[in-house]
Design a protein that fits this description.
globular, single chain, alpha/beta, 32 helices, seven-stranded mixed sheet, six-stranded parallel sheet
């Protein structure tokens, strides 16, 4: 009988080598593990997982190129496994072989369509301008397959009739008789689809084109889901205009991508889907929500730049002050497409009450304010109070704004969501509340909302009536800024610990029930642009107590009770009465129930009607499209520091120096100045007509880790080519003749021969690939000895900041 012996590992050379390699790997001896894996693969070259392990070791010991080939071999042996592609992609990205990395990430995504990390990586690469195979990507991302504004051939008579009725509702360009004739022809079996498409194109051409910029909303979705305040306005107004055709108005949606610095169209169905999901809950980890966001980010990163309809009105119902390059591209869109820009002014809080804002917010808002007057054609705002503040800021900055160009759209809209109802008992149980046992205070948690005054009032009323008799103060809202004192006070006082509840992330159905069940609502804010929670409270017919600050009397009208802002005694008195005088509270509720909110579509139509009126006026004036903005005028002798605005208060004549930049060759301004992109940057400066021969001072900055050679050109002719050392600065002094400034405009082109990828040093935090930097410039008359001496002294002694401040104060 033959006795079979079990073969030991040591008898199998492949297993022996793999055991040796694994032990070395686990002990961190990757230099020893790599040759052991290599020897095993010599004997068994078809082991795909071992090629992956071998690649890991090669990568870790610095043999990156060999690791790439090892990963590739694994992908060839097992082309259905996404992991080798994913590891390969990361290594290629680290080697800055971005095109190859994109290909590998895409392969990994095709094999595992739910791999969110691969989508995120592709989004980042696309945002850097790396080409992605859109056809392959569309197969795993259905949203990207959806056509944008592509005529759809109808499959049935019903479809064609629906399109015809939609056409008639949207535009008067189609004649009713012709429409009825087409419908009859269709019923008789005649193919009239081509004529229908022609009529649709005719109607679109005759319509006023409005493009809503929802950049603010999309940025909000990066960190939050449930919309509040400004986000809610955007969702409701745009959704209302999209879901019902609007006569004479063609609506499109776009988002500004800060990484690519372009506007990208957002398909209507994508926007509507996100808007619907956002209102369902505040759950950020919901797979459906995460998937929708991933699709959106890839769409923004992958899609071509939006070609605006000629003469379109670009309307931003949100905010754009956080986008430092925004106005540069407003100028580009205006020059390329005749676009008119209309911002919605929600408030002037960072300027009117800077003590309630963090410093960076105030600086960025001032930058926006100083730029908006130079770029906006008309303005929308939400209250007469905001309009007054806006005109006051314009006057302070010496900006010319016609009050008739500022249209007030009151936000007295209907916030109720009857389709989103939830059982009252479940909502109250979720927060441990009882009906009529609490007062509701809905707002962002920040200092200007005046939570501390409400807290002080609760403490005072507890002394008077006893803690047990007081209703709970329920504060609903996300965290804003400068709120440490609020949370500290709420946690430290025994009355507040028992009688104050602070919650966030409340869904629409739960919030509706909190409004219905509360005793009354409170809004003691010290400054508002409108005060949406006031309108929301009135929609539910609840008694409300408001301060009389800023716009709140407009929001509350005759339907609420007021106390003088800052009058703590009056606040306590009115709270006491509403808490404990049932008859008085019932009387106030009667007034609240008399409030009649407007449908959101009515607000949308008001905006549409106003835009059409402006469009008609523009056409009558012979200006169907906006003309390009003339290059900004430089004040002789004034130093223009090309950094972002760092001031925390406004001054007459203040201007954002970024306005001298033109083209697409600039990154956003930093604290020191501004970097160019790889293609170089261009300045356009209008010189005073009587300046004569001019002296130009120009400061340039070198890259952090790379020396470069730059070329400076004026009026298209190269003037200087010099080397700029790593981290160095150079100041040029040049004489400029009138022949170098055609039509009084001095055009300066700056381009370096090297760029630096900032993502390497910042580990992806700063994705910019930058060229030579621009610190600032000054232009003066060649014979202005004082201005020249001041500039030379400032450069020599490092006092450019003082010089900039001096000329700012002179303005």
């Amino acid at each position: 009988m033959k006795i079979l012996k079990r073969r030991r590992v040591s008898d199998d050379p492949v297993k022996r080598l793999l055991t040796e390699a694994d032990r070395a790997r686990d002990a961190g001896r990757h230099a020893d593990a790599a040759p052991a894996y290599a020897a095993a693969l010599e004997l068994a070259p078809d082991l795909a997982p071992i090629w992956v392990q071998y690649a890991h070791m090669l990568k870790d010991i610095g043999r990156a190129d060999e690791a790439v080939e090892a990963y590739r071999r694994a992908t060839q042996l097992n082309p259905d496994d996404p992991d080798p592609f994913y590891h390969l992609a990361h290594l290629l990205k680290r080697l800055r072989r971005f095109e190859d990395a994109a290909e590998a990430f895409l392969s990994a995504l095709e094999l595992n369509p739910g791999q969110g990390s691969a989508i995120a990586e592709l989004t980042t690469l696309a945002g850097r301008g790396i080409a992605i195979d859109e056809a392959r990507l569309a197969k795993v991302l259905p949203r990207l397959r959806r056509p944008v504004h592509t005529p759809r051939r109808a499959d049935s008579l019903g479809d064609l009739k629906g399109r015809m009725h939609s056409l008639l509702a949207r535009s008067r360009a189609a004649k009713t008789a012709e429409a009825q004739g087409l419908i009859q022809a269709l019923a008789a079996g005649v193919d009239a689809a081509e004529r229908l498409e022609s009529l649709e194109a005719e109607a679109a051409g005759a319509a006023t084109h409005v493009v809503f910029d929802v950049s603010d909303l999309l940025g909000y979705f990066d960190n939050a889901r449930l919309p509040t305040g400004i986000q809610r306005v955007q969702i409701e107004v745009i959704t209302a205009l999209l879901t019902e055709p609007t006569p004479g108005l063609e609506v499109r949606i776009c988002g500004f991508t800060s990484g690519r610095d372009v506007w990208v169209e957002v398909p209507q169905e994508v926007f509507l889907s996100l808007a619907e999901l956002a209102l369902v809950s505040g759950e950020l980890n919901d797979p459906v929500w995460e998937s929708a966001l991933y699709d959106l980010k890839l769409l923004l990163a992958m899609s071509p730049a939006l070609a605006f309809p000629r003469g379109a009105y670009l309307i931003n119902l949100g905010t754009s002050w956080w986008l430092q390059n925004y106005f540069l591209h407003v100028r580009r869109a205006r020059a390329a497409y005749g676009v008119r820009y209309i911002p919605f002014i929600h408030d002037l809080i960072p300027i009117m009450t800077p003590e309630h804002c963090v410093k960076r917010l105030t600086q960025d808002f001032i930058s926006w304010a100083s730029g908006v007057f130079a770029h906006a054609d008309r303005y929308l705002t939400n209250s007469e109070a905001s309009k007054r503040d806006f005109l006051a800021v314009a006057k302070r900055l010496n900006a010319q704004v016609d009050p008739d160009d500022v249209h007030v759209v009151r936000l007295d809209a209907d916030f109720r969501k009857p389709a989103a109802d939830a059982p009252m008992a479940e909502s109250l149980a979720r927060y441990g509340l009882t009906e009529n046992g609490f007062v509701l205070f809905v707002s962002t948690i920040e200092s200007r909302k005046n939570h501390l005054a409400a807290f002080a009032a609760w403490i005072e009323l507890a002394r008077k009536h006893g803690v047990e008799t007081l209703p709970t103060l329920v504060c609903v809202g996300n965290r804003g800024w400068l709120n440490d004192a609020v949370f500290t006070k709420a946690a430290s006082d025994p009355v507040l610990r028992e009688k104050v509840m602070m919650i966030s992330g409340v869904s629409d159905p739960d919030l509706a029930n909190l409004y219905r069940a509360c005793r009354f609502t409170l809004y003691p804010s010290t400054y508002e642009g409108w005060g949406l929670p006031v309108t929301e409270s009135l929609c539910y017919g609840k008694a409300a107590l408001l301060s009389d600050s800023s716009s709140l009397p407009e929001a509350g009208g005759d339907h609420v009770v007021y106390f003088p802002v800052g009058d703590q005694e009056a606040l306590v008195r009115e709270l006491d009465r509403l808490m404990f005088d049932d008859a008085w509270r019932a009387e106030v509720e009667t007034k609240a129930r008399a409030f009649r909110p407007r449908p959101w579509r009515t607000l949308g139509l008001e905006i549409a009607d106003q835009v059409r009126a402006w469009a008609a006026a523009d056409t009558t004036a012979g200006a169907a499209e906006a003309r390009p903005l003339a290059p900004a005028l430089a004040e002789p002798g004034r130093y223009y520091w090309m950094r972002r605005i760092v001031e925390t208060s406004i001054a007459p004549g203040m201007t954002a120096t970024e306005i001298f930049r033109i083209g697409d060759g600039w990154w956003q301004p930093d604290d020191w100045g501004v970097w160019t992109k790889a293609q170089g940057g261009t300045l356009a400066v209008t010189l005073p007509a009587d300046l004569g021969p001019a002296r130009l001072y120009l400061g340039l900055r070198g890259l952090h880790e790379t020396a470069l050679k730059y070329t400076l050109s004026i009026a298209g002719s190269a003037i200087e080519t010099r080397v700029l050392e790593t981290g160095g600065e150079q100041w040029l002094s040049l004489v400029v003749g009138s022949d170098q400034a055609p039509h009084g405009v001095l055009r300066i082109d700056i381009k370096g021969d090297k760029v630096e990828d900032f993502s390497v040093a910042t580990k992806g935090a700063d994705p910019r690939v930058a060229g030579v930097g621009l610190i600032g410039f000054m232009v003066c008359a060649e014979d202005d000895a004082v201005a020249r001496a001041d500039m030379v002294d400032a450069i020599t002694f490092g006092t450019l900041s003082d010089l900039a401040d001096r000329y700012l104060s002179k303005a």
